[in-house]
Amino acid sequence: MPGYRSIAPEAPQAAPDPAAPCALLTAAGSVGTGGAAAVGVIDAAPVLAAGFSAGPLDLTAVGRPGGTSLSLRRVDIAPGQSTGWHYHPGPMVVIVGSGTLTLTSAEGTVERPTGSAFVEAAGPGHVHNGHNTGSETVSLFTLSFMPPGVPMSFPVPAPDWALG
Q: Which of 39, 56, 95, 114 has the most neighbouring CB atoms within 10 Å?
C-alpha cells in the first residue's frame, strides 16, 4: 500500500490512566506523551471513546497557509463545574465519554449524553459554555483542527443573550 509504513515500538507502552487529566493519542491510537508508536496497527489500539451522531457531522477542512494543528485531548468537567464562556479558533469534533454535558450556545441549550458526538464550530460567532449539572464527572474527548500556534480556546464574557 503506497504511503503505508509500520514502525514498531522499542518497548511496550503502558495502558492509559483514566484518571489522567489529559491523554494524548499518537498516530497509532496508543496513548502516551511521546516516544515510538506502532503506526498502522490501529485495530489493535484501545478505543478511548466512541460516539454516535444522529445526523451528519458538519466538518469542513479548510486549507490554511500555515497548515493545521491537530490535537486529541481529554477534558474532564467535575460535577457542578463548567468550561466558562469561550469559542475555538478552529472546529472541534467532540465525543462525550462519560456523564452528560449541558451545552449552551446562541442556538439554545442541549444535553449531550455519554456516547454522543458533535462538532463545535469555529469562531467568535460560536460562543458556548459547557456545564456538568450531573453527579458524575463529564469526560470529553476532543479532536481539534486549529491554526498552528493558536490557543485551543478564547475565554469571553457571558453574552447578553445568556444573561437574561
A: 95
C-alpha closest to that of 110 among 133, 84, 90: 133
pLDDT digits (tens, 9 = 90+) for 53-109: 777 666 555 566 778 888 889 999 999 999 999 999 999 999 999 999 999 999 999
Sign of CA dihedral 32, 39, 145, 50: negative
The residue ranges of every structural domain in the chain are 20-48, 50-158
**pTM of the shown model:** 0.67
DSSP conformation class of 19: T
How far is residue 112's CA from residue 116's CA, in Å, rounded to a whole number? Answer: 6
What is the rounded distance in angstroms from the CA atom of residue 28 to the CA atom of residue 25? Answer: 8
CATH of range 50-158; options 3.30.1360.20, 3.40.1000.70, 4.10.520.10, 2.60.120.10: 2.60.120.10
